[in-house]
Amino acid sequence: MRGGTTMNEKVNNSGKKKIQHWKIIAIGLMIYDVIAIAFSYFFGLWLRFDFQFTTIPAEYLYSYAVGIPIYIIASLVFFWFTRMYRGIWRFAGFNELLRYALSSVIASAAYTVVSVLSGGRMPLPYYVVGAIVQFILVVGIRFSYRFYTQVLVKRDDTAAAAPAKKAMIIGAGAAGRTVVREMQQSDKTNMVPACIIDDNPNKWARFVEGVPVVGGRKDIPAMAKKYDVEEIYFCIPTASAKVKRDILNICKETGCRLKSLPGIYQLANEEVLVSRLKSVALEDLLGRDPIRVDLDEIFQYIKGKTILVTGGGGSIGSELCRQIAGHEPGHLIIFDIYENSTYQIELELREKYPNLKLTVLIGSVRDSRRLDHVFGTYRPDIVYHSAAHKHVPLMEYSPNEAIKNNVVGTYKTAYAALKYGTQRFVLISTDKAVNPTNIMGASKRICEMVIQSMDAISRSGRMDLLPFLHAHKDKVVNGQVVHDPMDHMAADGGATCDTLKIESVENKGRTGTQFVAVRFGNVLGSNGSVVPRFKRQIEMGGPVTVTHPDITRYFMTIPEAVSLILQAGTYAWGGEIFVLDMGEPVKIDTLARNLIKLSGYKPDEDIEVVYTGLRPGEKLYEEKLMAEEGMKKTDNELIYIGKPIPFNVEEFLKQLEELASASYENSPDIVEIVERIVPTFHPVGEHPEEKLAAEADPAAV
């Protein structure tokens, strides 16, 4: 049978029914069992009388002749119901052996009891020897087929095919044993287990499924060389992140390809198979444990809410949508300008969550009227603002676009959230906003200031301070001025202070929209990550290009980044900048070389590493917080809150209005304007846009 079908017969091309192969095997086994059982008990009787047939008393021969046919029929029925005729013998293992043994013992015991009670008593060796020989013959024929197919046939196939590759197994526990057994039995892999590594000295010099345990982690390089190992399988799903990292760091120096079990749940679900092993990912070598968040707390807050994710088709945005969709939001709205990736996440979510209330919208965060319509129609409770231009070098050549999309887009989205009573607004920021040296980082720092200003406005009620940025101004309809609906929110009884400043404020019990920002480093596997580029370069045979041998970055995985963003939504009181403790920064050069080693190559021998120089706006290292921001702990030991830097909100909002106007006029002075707004922004060298202008028209400079 295949694919779980219950059909017992097939119809061939001529229309006739064809008996399935397993039924023919079952009939053959039944005939064999009849002969085996009859012979077994006759052999026991024959043995009792020293193999002299003529000395066997007639009453014993009569009892045998009368009783054995009944016993054979009963045994066949019993064996059928215990599935002894339905096994797939080439995969028979301990469970099948145990079941067959119990079936044979129970049948033999029942025959002995019935025979004695019915008066057809036979010599003791008849029952004992008969039962033993029956077990050997009945079970032996079934497992002999498995031995034949798994050892002899596989050996012949292997000899005819390419020589088998050797693998080292890390871990002599349950998972490692299962992987070894599956490698030995499967005909779908050309790998054979050569040796096993385990840190428990009690297991050294012993064997697991015939494979030697040859030492601990310090012996990995020597044993890999001794046994000509080509692949290493990490099979310790319970290992901590530190233990796994330390062992894999040793393994990658061997030049072997590395694979590992994704997690402990494979062991619990009996999914420990060679086919389930995945290539060791770069995040397995990061210098910290994965971030842990209280998902119950997060999703209790999300459940039943209307949630809007801008940039929902991007790397972070799409993962946000996946995690939110799986925990019963009232309504999930995906908003993005790029239709291809947005369409893909829509298909994925509709297939996986058919009952999810999902709305997918195309539009730009720079379009005020589109945002007004979206917020006015759907009234989101929570907004995760992920839409942004994030590519550093590209934004250096198009600084006005960075301001339009990042700064103006954030302001307009936050404006709409405040206008329509959104409960919480979470901005996705970056560590590049700290002491920025490029326009992208500076634009994200201004976005953080926008969020802090919006939170201060929400808290104070000073809606009258909000400027109408480009395309936010009142419009004329049929000769009459139509005022922006936000105007009615400017209450006369708002804050009476002439100057509104960002400062630490106790927000508990407050009303209005709560605005927060989440800041983290580079995301492994995202669209803009260096890792996909390195992988493509390795696949092409190199070279792998690194900008500078000393350049460092903080890294995290996409699920970790999303977990932090969601956690911020529950911790938020308003105005905070949440920061993840991402451990120690990682050298990009080390990252590239590790990726080459994980792919089974040697850096600078098989794959060359080439240094190309820092790109426009790029700096050697990133920072998580500005020194003056300080740090405050949260309930999660890996998540901190930066103390807001005081600044004059009214002055900033006036500067913001000037900045927006300049960006829409494609001002050549946009970088200088940004420098006046962000004192910590220090551009590196000549700005690329100015250089391009000079090259195009030297006389104009």
Q: How does this structure look, described?
A:
- With 701 residues, the chain is an alpha/beta fold.
- 44% of the residues lie in helices and 14% in strands.
- The protein contains 21 helices and 26 strands.
- The chain has a nine-stranded mixed β-sheet, with helices on both faces.
- A hairpin with a 5-residue loop joins strand 25 and strand 26.
- Helix 15 (439-460) packs across helix 20.
Distance between the termini: 80 Å
CA-based shape:
elongated
How large is the radius of gyration?
Answer: 36 Å
What percent of the residues sit in helical stretches (DSSP H or I)? 40-55%
> How much strand?
5-15%
Strand order of the largest sheet: 12-11-10-13-14-17-22-26-25
**Total number of helices:** 21
| SS elements, strand count | 26
- The pLDDT mean sits at 78
Biggest sheet: strands, sense, closure? Answer: 9 strands, mixed
Task: List strands and helices in order, with pairings.
Blueprint: E1 9-11, E2 17-19, H1 21-48, H2 58-81, H3 94-117, H4 124-160, E3 165-170, H5 174-185, E4 191-197, E5 207-208, E6 211-215, H6 220-226, E7 231-234, H7 241-251, E8 257-260, H8 264-268, E9 278-279, H9 295-302, E10 306-310, H10 315-325, E11 331-336, H11 339-352, E12 358-362, H12 368-378, E13 382-385, H13 392-397, H14 399-419, E14 424-428, H15 439-460, E15 475-477, E16 480-482, E17 514-519, E18 522-524, H16 530-539, E19 544-546, E20 552-553, E21 555-557, H17 558-571, E22 577-580, E23 586-587, H18 588-598, E24 609-611, E25 632-633, E26 639-642, H19 649-664, H20 670-677, H21 688-696
